[in-house]
């Protein structure tokens, strides 16, 4: 490890000042110290922020929680308010690392930890993230834990924090069912272009039948594009497993391979992958299974509205400065209405199955 200066910041003003002069914050140190030992990160000055007043979890007026950057992963995961209101976040935290590490690791450090890409840690190998311009070893190397979507030509690393993924999960849920008002995106289910394929005559309330699948497929726009996928609640799975197509007097399974349950299911319908998610409504309700071309759904971050602010007013009595960062994310379907072709039924990039009764 290379030599470095060490300072303990006594307040946020001092910490901000020292960081502006090139210092690096250290909180729990569970990621930073490893990187320093490997000389992947070589800060000349460390600023220990553990004495700052950032260890509280407070309720906000609009029903949220404000989590201090120094709240440990253990304290956050076990907070009764978090466990009740945001159980996915609590469970994601408890899924990470070990009890010992979670007792030291902090919220700020967790979100700002560096990627777990093996080549990032291996200084003998090229890595654009560690040394820009050297190349990306992972693209042709060991990349099983890295990203499939959302990559760039320079780097395919994923964000390593389980907690960050859980925070994004809330957004995904709104991209499916958001109402398009009260600060929510317009979710796929509330798209004005959605086509809800009607159930078959006499179809049972909690069922999905092969005719539904055939009819949904016939209505999707852009069915040749790789961005067209099925999304479904897991409660739909048993319906798919028992689904078959009539062949003469017999039948063939639709979702399971020909020799039945001995092999893995195909996980596709008409060659398109199925993603199972709890964010879709449960079996029997519109949205339990959808066929969507996601290239026709816009997601944007409100770069112009995103802001970071500081105030000496909030903690004036304590001679402290408060910082806050606010980011906005929105989502909206690209199409206003379904397309009416010259002949035939309407088409849309968003197809659902109507509620069965
Ligand atoms: C063996 C092992 C297993 C792990 N498994 C998992 C896992 O399964 N899931 C998972 O999500 N994580 C896992 N982790 C990562 C662990 O969660 C992180 O190391 C930890 O959350 C980092 O927090 P820290 O406070 O120790 O950060 P530090 O190591 O102190 O800092 C990390 C980075 O954040 C910066 N930083 C810290 N606090 C602030 C702040 N307030 N403001 C600005 N910058 C700041 C530092 O400068 C540094 O760059 C694992 C780690 C280890 C060692
Ligand atoms: S994906 Fe490539 S550039 Fe990114 S961290 Fe790994 S090796 Fe480096």
UniProtKB/TrEMBL annotation:
Family annotation (SUPFAM superfamilies): FAD-binding/transporter-associated domain-like, Major capsid protein gp5
NCBIfam families: major_cap_HK97 (TIGR01554)
GO molecular function list: FAD binding; oxidoreductase activity
Compartments, as annotated in UniProt: Virion
Keywords: Virion
GO cellular component: virion component
Entries under InterPro entries matching the protein: Diverse_Substr_Oxidored, FAD-bd_PCMH, FAD-bd_PCMH-like_sf, FAD-bd_PCMH_sub1, FAD-bd_PCMH_sub2, Mopterin_DH_FAD-bd, Phage_capsid
Keyword Membrane applies: no
Claim: Heme is one of the keywords in the record: no
Domain FAD-binding PCMH-type intervals: 1-219
Protein name, as recorded: FAD-binding PCMH-type domain-containing protein
